[in-house]
Design a protein that fits this description.
This protein is α/β, with parallel strands linked by helices. It has five helices and five strands. A five-stranded parallel sheet has the order 1-2-3-4-5. The longest helix is centred in the C-terminal third of the chain and has 14 residues. It is globular. 16% of the residues are buried. The model has no long low-confidence stretch (mean pLDDT 96).
Length: 118
């Protein structure tokens, strides 16, 4: 990714990455969103490099899992909870309640899906 990100930055593009953190980080990025997956271990480097932590919420336990991950990022990392799309009707009220009680977190939505954009 190094040659690609270097060229983009040299041409005044902002370069953002969303990753599970399972593979080595290469290249230069203006913003890194770490969205860990339960079935793949994340590398330590991504945790300390993340500007944003996004947790996909499938069930109530994912809120606790998210808290565990929030302890491994910097204090400046933005924290987001996002309902898994197929369970959004059930998970969104749970997330809203959780964020109201835990204001360090924010809500993230897949707005393109609400607008029916693939």
């Amino acid at each position: 990714m190094e040659p690609l990100t270097k060229e983009l930055i040299n041409n005044d593009y902002s370069v953002h990455l969303e990753t599970s953190g399972s593979y080595p980080l290469t290249g230069n990025f203006d913003w890194i969103c770490w969205s860990p997956k339960k079935f793949k271990k994340s590398l330590e480097k991504i945790k300390i490099s993340a500007n944003e932590l996004k947790i996909i919420v499938n069930n109530k336990h994912d809120l606790l899992w998210g808290e565990e991950h929030s302890n491994s990022v910097s204090e400046h990392c933005k924290l987001f909870l996002q309902p898994e799309w197929s369970r959004r009707e059930k998970m969104l009220p749970l997330i809203i309640d959780y964020v109201q009680q835990n204001p360090k977190w924010s809500i993230s939505l897949q707005s393109h899906k609400y607008m029916k954009i693939p």
